[in-house]
Amino acid sequence: MKTTIAILLLFNMSLLFAQNSKLTGTIVSKNNKEKIAFATVAIFDATTKSFVKSTATDEKGYYEIQVATVAFYVQIEILGYKTVQSKTITNTKTDLNLNFELEEDALALNEVVVMQSKSLIKLSRDKMIVDIVKAGFGTGNDGLETLSKLPGVQLDKDENVVFRGSNNLQIMIDGKSSLLTGEELKQYLKTLDGANIKAVEIIANPSAKYDAAGSAGIFNIVLKKSAATGLTGNLRTSVGFAEFIKNYNGFNLYNNTEKWNLKFGLNYGYNESVNRRTIDQTVVTPDITTLLKQKNDWLPATNNYSGNFGASHQLNKNITVGASTNYSIYKSDEKTNGRTEESDDNVYKRFTILDTQDDIANTTLTGTVFYNFSSDSLDTKIDAQLNYANYQNSSDRLTSNTYFNANTNEMYRDIEAVKYQNPTNFNIISAKIDFEKKVNNTFNFETGTKLSYVNNDYTIVLQDRDAQGNYTLNTNRSNHLVYKESILSGYGITNFTKGKFDIQAGLRGEYINYNATSLTSNSTNKDNYLSLFPSFSINTNLENNQFKLSYSRRIQRPRYLYLNPYYEYIDTYNVSVGNPELTPQFTDAFELVWIKKQKTSVSFFANFSKNEMYQIIDYDKETKITTLFYDNIGKSKSIGLSFNTSYLLKKWWDLQLNTEVSYGQATSDLEGYKFNNSGISYSGALNQSFTLAKDWSAAWNSFYSKNGDYGNTSFKPSYDMSFSMRKDFFDKKLRMNLSVQNVLRKSQWIQSTQQDNVTTNWLNRWETRKITLSLTYNFGTAKKKEVKDADLNEEQNRL
């Protein structure tokens, strides 16, 4: 009730501000009168020459923006065209219509524009947009490696993407779900060629319009699109070498007309790499101190294939329909070589040799059918979608452990061999409809509903080899789980604009009904519950300063696999198990952002979580086996400050600085795993780009990151730097890029966990110091419309 009253007071206060009028128009190319999408339309105060607000043209080149009853002028900017500035406008008591024609400018890419359209990092409403092309992050890297180079991002010991200390992210592709999380998401991201990524949008505090999943926010990966009407496309290839060879190849074709938009793409990648993992575990008891020193080299060789096709048709000026599909194949031949040395009271006693061979193959199929309606005035918009996804995975793993005495190098027990198979089949279907209505110049609202259904089939087959060499089923460690889930959600958002203030309030409701049945144990875990997710934001433009205060409630539901009482055999000393009692984690997220002259931003953020999902390390001193599982420990909080700015040191030298510092605390009330620890984390990134003569350019990127203590875990710093050089040929149709990544070989993850009398030190070092040469050939010019991809959202992010 108090929240409602506060919102109403804010709405009433907004009525006191100056009246607005609406400015509309269309932006076209002067040469061919083609409509220009995504041009920046900026309003400046004519008296102070200061920036007031901005918007962007839609796919039809149309823009609409509210202006106050004071003197102002309009400035239009987009790369590749000369900047246009209108005359001063003073009479704004009525709505105005201003159309602009832009002249192409081949030198525009080398100019500095007021709105920082060249900036490596830009801020737009609730998004921080990182330009991957300008930063040079993508060339020679796969999608996962590219994400790891973003400001405030790391890969943890399991190669999960960590942002602001949390891996509870929702990752999307072109505004649509990436389908997977955990191991499946890592495999999927590795099928992406980083050179095909245009930008990444970081949405730290999403509104109620988005699925509520992801307590750390949303990463939206924006892929490169055609820049031409008619038949256009691009070809690209790259070869890289670190300790092993890598190769990426891609072909994209587009055909865009006034009524039709078609796209077709094929991609192939081959990658050999290594991950060197070291685990030291010390167990102290009154009788003895045991030290386990484990070194594992994981050596995957992967082949990735993917293809996509999409088509959209504009039935008339208001209605567009279309469909798209994507199919990908991931095959990996993975070998792990390991050695574990065991010491008692500093006396080296025995060692174990690990040998694992894992053959993995998975396929992903997604498809969507969509309908879009926009009224002539764009006051009414309807977006309807029907989406389907199927994911199939097979894993055939053979692990053997051979045990030796340290003093004689003779075996002291029989070889242990285990076969592990994990066939899975996921089917997901969802239907959604969104409606947006602009009532007048000060008020509009959005609403929508979504229904999704998930049917997941997990099978874990674990077989032990007996003395005769035969493999027999281990019924205690095998399991067949069928997971069915339906989620019905709906949201409503209202927007008020008065003077220089914009206020948004929204509420999302999600009702979930799930049933997890273990066919092996004949047990069922089911539940249903309704969760509400409010969101609120208020922002204002005050000459050269912009401010935004926002709040949203988020949820992190357990991955489907975490609810499975499975048993995953890693090696003799390490296993993972599921927890059917795991419950969702809820987070209240706050953020206050200050933007100075569209160039410098300062963000203060605070996240408070309940029922924190935390990975527990449980050591059994009798068997000397460490068991990993997730449980709800209690609560956590993260409070921090981030700073981003850019400097033009010379006309040819652009510098971007990003820093962040945060305080994190986790409290566990879980019996046997109680703790209350905290620490300070800090990170910094310096990215420099150089525009040189004769179509040469270069980039130098460096970072330093140090996570503070969190829960019962402390971390060591990670840092490195990378360089790239680029040359354009044949009127910029052919581009050559040479890059050297992680030259210091210090991009790694080091953590230490202290639980009771057990200390576990974990180091992951990925293959680094990589050299890559790439070639990209583009043909065609101008703009295109994009065909929508599947929107399967949060229910697919937990596979």
UniProtKB/TrEMBL annotation:
Residues covered by the Outer membrane protein beta-barrel domain: 376-777
Annotated signal peptide: 1-18
Superkingdom of origin: Bacteria
Transferase in keyword set: no
Subcellular localization: Cell outer membrane
UniProt main location, coarse: membrane
InterPro entries cross-referenced by the UniProt entry: Beta-barrel_TonB_sf (IPR036942), CarboxyPept-like_regulatory (IPR008969), OMP_b-brl_3 (IPR041700), Plug_dom_sf (IPR037066), TonB-dep_rcpt-like (IPR039426)
This protein's UniProt keywords: Cell outer membrane, Membrane, Signal, Transmembrane, Transmembrane beta strand, Transport
GO CC term, one of those recorded: cell outer membrane
Membrane topology designation: Multi-pass membrane protein
Family: Belongs to the TonB-dependent receptor family.
Official protein name in the record: Outer membrane beta-barrel protein
